[in-house]
Specification:
The complex is a heterodimer of chains A (303) and B (611).
Chain A: H1 15-36, H2 42-45, E1 47-54, H3 61-72, E2 77-81, E3 84-89, H4 95-109, E4 115-123, H5 125-154, H6 157-180, H7 193-223, H8 229-261, H9 267-302
Helix pairs in contact in A: 1-6, 3-4, 5-6, 5-7, 6-7, 6-9, 7-8, 7-9, 8-9
Chain B: H1 2-38, H2 41-50, H3 52-61, E1 64-65, H4 67-70, E2 72-79, H5 81-89, H6 95-111, H7 115-126, H8 133-136, H9 149-178, E3 184-188, E4 192-198, H10 204-212, E5 217-221, H11 225-237, E6 240-246, E7 255-260, H12 261-265, E8 266-267, E9 275-280, H13 284-291, H14 294-299, E10 304-308, E11 323-330, E12 335-336, E13 340-347, E14 354-360, H15 362-374, E15 380-384, E16 387-390, E17 402-405, H16 411-423, E18 430-438, H17 440-493, E19 497-498, H18 500-529, H19 534-566, H20 570-603
Helix pairs in contact in B: 1-3, 1-17, 1-20, 6-7, 9-16, 17-18, 17-20, 18-19, 18-20, 19-20
Classes of the chains: A alpha+beta (303), B alpha+beta (611).
Chain lengths: 303, 611
C-alpha cells in the first residue's frame, strides 16, 4: 500500500500561510501564558495532592470542596481524577494531620460512602524549588546541546536556528494549549515533572522529524546543485513525506492508545505527547524548513 | 557480505541470550509466586521457608517495579544541619552564636546554600577575628582552643557526614523493626536521605512518625504549683488590652473594657497545679506566638518552661477531645534516653491501657534512684520530643532502674515508641522534603492499564506495518517484538526500575521504533522506483537511510540523557526506558531486519515485497 507514491505538493511556496498560522498560534499561546499564567502542579509549587477513592460514585467536587474548607482552614482545589477525586491544598497541616482531617471529614459527611486515600503526594516548598531549577536547567541544556549537535552535523548555523525555532514553536504552543484548555479538559493539565518529561520527549521527537528532512535537504543539495534552493527544499520535503506521515501515524497510534487506556495518572503526559507529535510534524515542514529557505534567500540576496 | 552477516548473527544471538538470561529471573519469580498462590494457605509458608534462598535470589534479580506500580511510600528526608550545629555546641552557645546560626539558617534556606558555610561566613563577617573553636572544642578531641575556623569547618563537615550516616542506620533499624519487605534507605548528597518502602499504605502515618521522631527522651521535675499559679496571672496581665467603649458613664468616668487574648485561648483551671492551663489544639500556634515574648519568659519562674502534653483530652464529659494541657516543667534535664537499655510494650495492670516499660543501665538506675528518693509525692515529667507524655507522681524510691511511659493512644503507638527508643535517638531532626505514597490498588490498576496499552498499541502498529509495507512490514514487526523484550532485558541487566512513565516510554518507543524501518523501507521503495534491482535497492536503501537514522536517534538519545540527569523518581524511569528503547530499536532495526532480509532475499531467493 502506498500513501504518497511520488508527491509533489507545494509546501514551500505556500509557506506564508504556514507562517501566519504558526504566528497566530504562538501569539495566542504567549498571550494565554502571560495573562492566564502557567498552572504548575505541586511538583513546582509545593503543596499536597491527595487522590480519594469512594466505594460508590464520587460526590460532586464542589460539594467536597465546601465540606473540606473548614477543617483544612483554606479552600482546596478539588477535581475529578477518572472516577475518583483529587484534592490539592497548600494547607499548613502536616502529613498525618492532613490525612486524618480529610478522611474523617469525608467519612463523616458521606457516612454511607466510605472513602480511602489511594495516592498521596507532598512536596515541601524547598523541594519544589529544587525541582523547578532542575526542570529549567534540563530544558536549557537540551536546547543548547541540540543547537550544537545540529551545528556540528549540518555545518551551517541556519540549520541549527531552523531546528531550534521549530522546537520553541512546538513547546510554546503546547504550553499555550495546556494553559487555554486548563479548565475545559476533564483531566489534569497541571504542569508537573511528567509534563516536563513529555516536553523533552516532544523536543526529541520534533527534532527527529526535522533532522530527517534536513538530512534529505543536505543530500539533495549535493545532487541537485543547480536547482533553486526553495525548489530543492520542497523536493526534499516531498521525498520524506511518506516517512513523516507514516511515523507520525504509528507514534500517534501508540500515544493515542496510551491516552485512552493508560490510566488517569498518564493522561496529562500522553495528551502532551499527542500535541507534540502533531506539532512536531507540522513544524518540521512549516517552521524549520521554511525558515531555512528564507534565511538562505536572505543570505543569497546579501551576496 | 556473508561474513559481516555472520558477525551480525553472532551479536544477535549474544543479545538474545543475555536478554533471556536477565529476564529469566523475572519470569521465574512470577511463575514461583503463582505456584505459591495456588497452594493451600498452610502450605504456602512452609514452601517459602524451604525455598527461601532460591526465592530471595529470584526476588533480588528480577526486574524492579517502581513504587508507583507496586504501591508504597517514597520519602526524601533532610537532616536539620543547623540543629546539629546547635547540638554540637551544646552548653557553650551564647546569644551571638544563636543569632548567627538563626541568620545562617535563613540565608541558607533562601539561597539554597550550605548552612555550615553560611554559618562560618556570617561569623567572620561580624568579627573577622572570631574564633569558632571556642564553641566546639570542649566536646571533641579534634579541636583545640587554637584551631582555625577552617579546621572548625572541616570538623562540622565531618560531624554532619557522620550524623547522616548514623541517621541512615537508625532509620534502617526502625524500618527493620517495623517490618517492611525490601526497603531501600540511601544517602543522597551531603544531608539528604531517600527512603523507599514498598507495600506501605495504611501505615503511612506510623512510618512518617518513625522517620521523623528524634526520640529525645527526658525526665524532668515539674514546676512548683503555687509558683506556677501566681505566674499565670502575671503572664496573663501582659496581654491585657484596655479600650474605651464609651466617653463617659454616670459617674463621669470613661468606661473601659479590658480584653485579653491569652485568657481567651488558655483555659484557666483555677487552682494551683503543675498544669498552667488548657489550650484547644487549633489554638496552639497562636498561643505559642503569644508566649514567645521576652516579657512572658520574665514573668515565669526562672527555672521553668511551658510544654504541651502529648495527647489531647476532653474537658467535659461529652465535649470534644481536643484540648492539650500546658504544663510547667523545670528546664533542667534530670535524665535522658541514653540510659535506657531495654524497652517493651506492656499493659498497665490497673487501667489495662498500653504503656512502654523501660529498663535503665546501672548509672541511670543509680540516678533514678536518687531522683525518686528526693521527690516522693511529687510528679516527674516523662518527655518525648518536647511533649509531656505523662507526669506520674513518685510514690516510692525506685532502685531497679525501671520506669514506664503511659498516656499512649494504643498498642501500635506503644510498639512504635519501643522501636524508636531501641533504635536510638537521631543526631538531629529529619525534615520531610517530599513524600509520595501510592496505594497498592492504584499500583495494580496502573500496571494493568500500562500493560493493556502496550499490548493494544503493539497490536495496532503491527497490523499497520503489515498493511502498509507487506513483507517488509512483517519483518519489521519481528524486530519490534524483539525490541520490547530487549528493552526489558536492558532494564533488568542494569537493575533499573520500571515505573509508570517508564511503561509510557515503552509504548512511545513502540510507536517510534518503526521509524528507522520506515526510513529504510521507504528508501528501498524509492530505489526500486528508480530502477534498481531488489538486492541493490536493499543495499542502497540501508546505506542511504543510515545518516538520517543515526542523527535522529542520537538527538533523541541526548534529550533522554538530559532527562535522566535532571529528573527524579519516576521521570528517571521514563528517561531510562527511552534510552534503552533507542538502543534496542537501533539494534533491531538496523541489524536484525537486515539479517532476516538478507537471509530471505539472498539465501532463499524470496522476493520480499516492500509494499
Amino acid at each position: 500500500m502506498r500513501l504518497f507514491e511520488d508527491p509533489k505538493i507545494e509546501f514551500i511556496n505556500n509557506r506564508k500561510i504556514g507562517y501566519i498560522i504558526s504566528g497566530l498560534l504562538v501569539l495566542a499561546s504567549f498571550g494565554a501564558i502571560i495573562f492566564k499564567g502557567l498552572n504548575f502542579g505541586i511538583d513546582f509549587r509545593g503543596g499536597t495532592e491527595i487522590v480519594v477513592s469512594f466505594e460508590g460514585t464520587s460526590p460532586n467536587v464542589v460539594e467536597i470542596r465546601n465540606v473540606l474548607s473548614e477543617p483544612l482552614a483554606s479552600t482546596p482545589e478539588v477535581k475529578t481524577f477518572g472516577e475518583d477525586v483529587i484534592i490539592r491544598t497548600d494547607s499548613g497541616l502536616e502529613g498525618n494531620a492532613l490525612r486524618t482531617a480529610i478522611l474523617s471529614t469525608l467519612n463523616q459527611q458521606y457516612s454511607d460512602n466510605p472513602s480511602s486515600i489511594i495516592k498521596l503526594d507532598i512536596v515541601g516548598p524547598r523541594f519544589a524549588e529544587d525541582l523547578r531549577d532542575a526542570a529549567a536547567m534540563s530544558i536549557f541544556f537540551a536546547l543548547g546541546i541540540i543547537f550544537v549537535y545540529v551545528l556540528i552535523r549540518f555545518k551551517k548555523w541556519y540549520f541549527s536556528l531552523g531546528a531550534v525555532a521549530a522546537l520553541f514553536h512546538d513547546v510554546i504552543i503546547t504550553l499555550g494549549i495546556f494553559t487555554l484548555f486548563y479548565e475545559i479538559m476533564p483531566f489534569s493539565l497541571d504542569i508537573d515533572q511528567a509534563i516536563i518529561a513529555a516536553f523533552l520527549t516532544i523536543v526529541g521527537y520534533s527534532l527527529n522529524d526535522t533532522v530527517v528532512v534536513f538530512d534529505r535537504i543536505r543530500e539533495n543539495s549535493l545532487i541537485f546543485k543547480t536547482e533553486a534552493y526553495d525548489r530543492m527544499v520542497n523536493r526534499s520535503i516531498n521525498n520524506t513525506l511518506s516517512r513523516t506521515v507514516v511515523t507520525s501515524m504509528t507514534t500517534l497510534i501508540a500515544v493515542g492508545v496510551l491516552f485512552l487506556f493508560g490510566g488517569e495518572v498518564l493522561k496529562g503526559l500522553s495528551f502532551a505527547l499527542i500535541l507534540g507529535v502533531i506539532l512536531g510534524t507540522y513544524s518540521s515542514i512549516f517552521v524549520a524548513s521554511a525558515l531555512l529557505v528564507d534565511l538562505q534567500l536572505k543570505k543569497a540576496e546579501k551576496s | 557480505m556473508k561474513q559481516s552477516n555472520g558477525t551480525k548473527v553472532f551479536f544477535i544471538v549474544c543479545f538474545v541470550l543475555l536478554t533471556g538470561y536477565y529476564l529469566s529471573f523475572t519470569v521465574m519469580n512470577w511463575w514461583a509466586e503463582r505456584h505459591i498462590a495456588s497452594l493451600p494457605e498452610n502450605e504456602q509458608v512452609e514452601y517459602r521457608l524451604q525455598n527461601q534462598e532460591r526465592l530471595n535470589n529470584l526476588r533480588a534479580r528480577k526486574l524492579n517495579f517502581g513504587l508507583d506500580l507496586q504501591g508504597g511510600m517514597y520519602v526524601t528526608l533532610e537532616l536539620a544541619t543547623h540543629q546539629l550545629i546547635a547540638e554540637l555546641a551544646r552548653d557553650q552557645a551564647d546569644d551571638v552564636f544563636s543569632d548567627v546560626l538563626a541568620n545562617a539558617f535563613q540565608t541558607a534556606r533562601e539561597s539554597g546554600t550550605d548552612v555550615i558555610n553560611e554559618f562560618i561566613s556570617e561569623f567572620e563577617r561580624r568579627d573577622s577575628n572570631a574564633r569558632l573553636s571556642r564553641y566546639f572544642h570542649m566536646n571533641t578531641d579534634d579541636l583545640t582552643r587554637a584551631s582555625s575556623n577552617d579546621e572548625v569547618r572541616a570538623y562540622l563537615d565531618r560531624q554532619r557526614n557522620a550524623a547522616v550516616d548514623r541517621a541512615v542506620e537508625i532509620i534502617r533499624n526502625r524500618i527493620d523493626r517495623f517490618g517492611v519487605t525490601e526497603p531501600s534507605i540511601v544517602r543522597a548528597g551531603s544531608n539528604r536521605i531517600v527512603v523507599e518502602l514498598p507495600g506501605i499504605d495504611d501505615d503511612a502515618d506510623r512510618v512518617r512518625n518513625l522517620l521523623r521522631g528524634t526520640a529525645r527522651l527526658e525526665f524532668r521535675l515539674m514546676a512548683n504549683p503555687n509558683e506556677l499559679r501566681s505566674s499565670f496571672n502575671r503572664v496573663a496581665q501582659i496581654f491585657d488590652v484596655r479600650e474605651e467603649i464609651a466617653a463617659e458613664d454616670e459617674d463621669g468616668e470613661p468606661e473601659i473594657r479590658v480584653s485579653n487574648e491569652l485568657r481567651e485561648l488558655i483555659l484557666d483551671i483555677g487552682g494551683a497545679s503543675v498544669i498552667f492551663g488548657y489550650v484547644n489544639v487549633a489554638d496552639t500556634a497562636r498561643v505559642n506566638e503569644l508566649l514567645n515574648r521576652d516579657a512572658v519568659r520574665r514573668a515565669l519562674p526562672s527555672n521553668v518552661e511551658l510544654m504541651y502534653s502529648a495527647r489531647p483530652e476532653r474537658l467535659t464529659q461529652d465535649g470534644p477531645r481536643n484540648f492539650l494541657a500546658l504544663l510547667g516543667v523545670r528546664t533542667q534535664i534530670e535524665l535522658t534516653g541514653e540510659v535506657i537499655t531495654d524497652a517493651r510494650p506492656s499493659f498497665d495492670p490497673q487501667t489495662n491501657r498500653p504503656e512502654v516499660s523501660m529498663t535503665m543501665n546501672r548509672e541511670g538506675a543509680r540516678r533514678w534512684s536518687m531522683i525518686t528518693a528526693a521527690n516522693i509525692d511529687r510528679p516527674v515529667a516523662i518527655i518525648l520530643d518536647d511533649l509531656v507524655y505523662s507526669f506520674p507522681v513518685v510514690r516510692t524510691q525506685i532502685t531497679e532502674g525501671r520506669s514506664s511511659i503511659s498516656g499512649l493512644g494504643g498498642l501500635s503507638e506503644a510498639e512504635d515508641l519501643v522501636n524508636i527508643l531501641l533504635s536510638g535517638a537521631l543526631p538531629a531532626p529529619l525534615e520531610i522534603l517530599e513524600e509520595r505514597t501510592v496505594g497498592a490498588t492504584l499500583g495494580e490498576a496502573s500496571i494493568r492499564a500500562g500493560f493493556n496499552s502496550a499490548m493494544l498499541g503493539l497490536f495496532l502498529v503491527v497490523i499497520f506495518m503489515v498493511v502498509y509495507y507487506r513483507g517488509g512490514g512483517a519483518i519489521a514487526n519481528i524486530a519490534l517484538l524483539l525490541n520490547i523484550i530487549f528493552i526489558l532485558g536492558i532494564l533488568a541487566a542494569f537493575k533499573a526500575t520500571l515505573t509508570l512513565p517508564g511503561i509510557a516510554g515503552i509504548v512511545l518507543t513502540i510507536g517510534m521504533a518503526v521509524d528507522a524501518n520506515v526510513l529504510i523501507f521507504d528508501r528501498i521503495r524509492e530505489e526500486q522506483r528508480a530502477g534498481k534491482s531488489l538486492l541493490a535497492a536493499i543495499d542502497s536503501g540501508y546505506s542511504n537511510a543510515m545518516s538520517a537514522i543515526l542523527d535522529a536517534n542520537i538527538t533523541t538519545f541526548l534529550t533522554a540523557v538530559i532527562l535522566f540527569s535532571f529528573g527524579m523518581g519516576p521521570i528517571k524511569g521514563f528517561a531510562v526506558t527511552l534510552m534503552a528503547g533507542i538502543v534496542a530499536s537501533l539494534f533491531s532495526a538496523i541489524i536484525i531486519t537486515r539479517v532476516i532480509i538478507d537471509w530471505l532475499t539472498r539465501g532463499k531467493n524470496i522476493k520480499v515485497s516492500f509494499g
